[in-house]
Amino acid sequence: MIFKLKKAAAILAASAICFSCTVAGGFSAYADDEEGISVSETEDTPQKSEPVDSADGMWQYTIIKDDSGNESACIEKYYGDGIEINIPSEIDDYTVTSLGDYALYENTAIEKVIIPASVTDIGRSAFFGCTSLVSFEVNSANENFTEEDGILFSKNKEILTCLPPGRQDTEYNVPDGVRALGPSAFAVCKSLKKIQLPESLELIDFYCFAECESLDNVVLPEKTTDLGMFAFTGCTGLKNITLPRGLTIIEGGAFACCTALKDIELPDSLQTIGQGAFVSTGLIQVEIPVYVQEIGYSAFGYTIDENNQIIPMDKFTVKGVSGSAAQSYCAENENVEFSAIDSETTAEGAGKSGDSSKNDSNKETGISKNAIIGIAVGAGIAFLAALFVVFRVIKIKKRNKPAADSSQSSGSPEPSQEPVSADKPEEDDQ
């Protein structure tokens, strides 16, 4: 089944996955903060006019007005049939500064796109489905984009913007230093079977690998924390994917229609699983980590029928800890059976082979021994202190006894004496 971009969006939108959850604007650079990298986008959404056709009839564009009142053109559609497209730097006296979302969507004639220096923003999925596109050329004066071997990157090469879908690469190594894969960066690269991702990679964005039907095995780097919406949707050949230990979110539709995917291990770091994330895959069961806080509707246990409707599977099992989001998900979806792993986890922890459990046991034993030693030492010190006091008292009594006997024999009254303190020993006792 060819799982098309707009069809996927329509199906999952019906399941309350809002398309607006994705980034709305084009991306010109990366936002770098303490939490990592995000591909997007202008902070303020510019005002756009209604689409108009260019005087030469080749383009449809909108007029963008920024906060300062400056106006520029955003190309929304191409009407021509040329195989080499030279994006104009100016249309009808407006400087062209951006390509809109889906600007060249599924234009199967285009083989090359030339980008002028004036373009600072490229909308999401602008080149999706351009199955004849094999290369980009970027004006060297462009401050936001560049190309390497015909592949489109951000100027600093920290974002891979688009690998042309018409290339016949079966393998591709993403260069070291790339921190993000942009929206639809590898979408519909149908020949791509193997992808090598760098350790620097943090973000895989919206529709990144959509419909890469030959892709069969993917290992995500440890720094990757976010899988965007529909990131691997329609990868019908995907059998294995290794998710990193730091992954926190799998967004809606991320693995929708990955029909060959029959097993997956979710990392303990995972917190959110979006709606329809695993709809219509080969999974029949899954174990949900205890720290997952949110599982969206139809994430597990649902499939898409021939009428493109999301329907429940006959049987699906979710394993998880009692009282967790896993159990709540099953309670809300009658077709999904919950299997508690509480007892399994306890038994595994008690009898698990390997040094870790033994070390834990040894640590507990070590603490007990230390406590016993501490108590014994304390008791010994207390005993010696008490013994010292007893000896002091005996010694004092012996010294006072002759005086007492003398006074009694003479019949004179016993002289008054100051009491001797055990805390202040006399000099001859020191």
Helix/strand/pairing class, anyone?
A: alpha/beta
Strand order of the largest sheet: 13-14-15-17-19-21-23-24-26
Helix content: 10-25%
As for the number of domains, it is: 1
Biggest sheet: strands, sense, closure?
A: 9 strands, mixed
Strand fraction equals 15-25%
The tally of strands reads 30
Structural topology:
Elements: H1 5-13, E1 30-33, E2 36-39, E3 47-48, E4 52-53, E5 59-65, E6 71-78, E7 84-86, E8 90-91, E9 94-99, E10 112-115, E11 121-122, E12 135-138, E13 145-148, E14 151-154, E15 159-162, E16 171-173, E17 180-181, E18 194-196, E19 203-204, E20 217-219, E21 226-227, E22 240-242, E23 249-250, E24 272-273, E25 285-287, E26 294-295, E27 302-304, E28 310-312, E29 316-320, H2 325-332, E30 336-340, H3 342-351, H4 355-410
Parallel strand pairs: 6-9, 7-10, 9-11, 10-12, 15-17, 16-18, 17-19, 19-21, 20-22, 21-23, 23-24, 24-26, 25-29, 29-30
Antiparallel strand pairs: 1-2, 3-5, 4-5, 5-6, 8-9, 13-14, 14-15, 27-28
